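Subject: for your reference before the review

Hello V.,

The reviewers asked for a structural picture of the protein, and I figured it would be easier to keep everything in one thread rather than splitting it across files. Below is the amino acid sequence we used in the manuscript, unchanged from the supplementary table.
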Amino acid sequence: MLNINNLHVQLEDEDKQILKGVDLTVEAGKVHAIMGPNGSGKSTLSYVLSGKGGYVVTEGTASLDGQDLLDLEAEERAAAGLFLAFQYPVEIPGVGNMTFLRTAVNAQRKARGEDEMSAAEFLKEVRATAKSLKIDADMLKRPVNVGFSGGEKKRNEILQMAMLSPKMCILDETDSGLDVDAMKLVAEGVNALRDGKRGFLVITHYQRLLDHIKPDVVHIMANGRIIKSGGPELALEVENNGYADILAEVE
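And here is what came back from the structure prediction:
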């Protein structure tokens, strides 16, 4: 599904290499987690895949279901089925959640050559989706993320993800700043979207999120590369011993 081969990336405004040959394949229906020390390139990888500016790909490829992502604009990548949940979701004052969601859904449907959803169709679907994710219907009436707690912002992103129904979901430190209860609710929302077809790439610092979103594969990233991959036990090893032993293995 998601295939990354020898990806090298540097900052646009300075000659600084951030990614130094990332190789990664996320299969349909699988959850892959990436962990690593600060500055290892985890978030940069998510930004480059989603099309955020400020980065230059100097070598390598990234594709989704065989389609070259790096040749597409950010909105085209979204229409192709890529979704990025941000570490710090932005507030959009004056724009209602319902309006934002319907505009996003219909923009993607139009880009794929599908019929747009009517107001009635959308209202029925968004209410049902919010209920299935245990999201209070009052959240739908508020401006996007304005006055939301950290947990509400993250759950709102899960709702967006569910409505857009992407093929590939990238979660960039979605547990950042959440208390245990909020993290459990977010994890439940993610798990509700695991359908055996959709792929997930979960970027996190902490094992605690992976207690709730069970990964199939865990990768350790350091110095712009994935240096070790394994099963869920690899995350437990990091939790117990830190990264020092793993980093020493590849020196």
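For the response letter, the relevant points are probably these. Residues 97-111 form the longest helix (15 residues). The chain has a mean pLDDT of 86.

Happy to draft the paragraph if you're swamped.

O.
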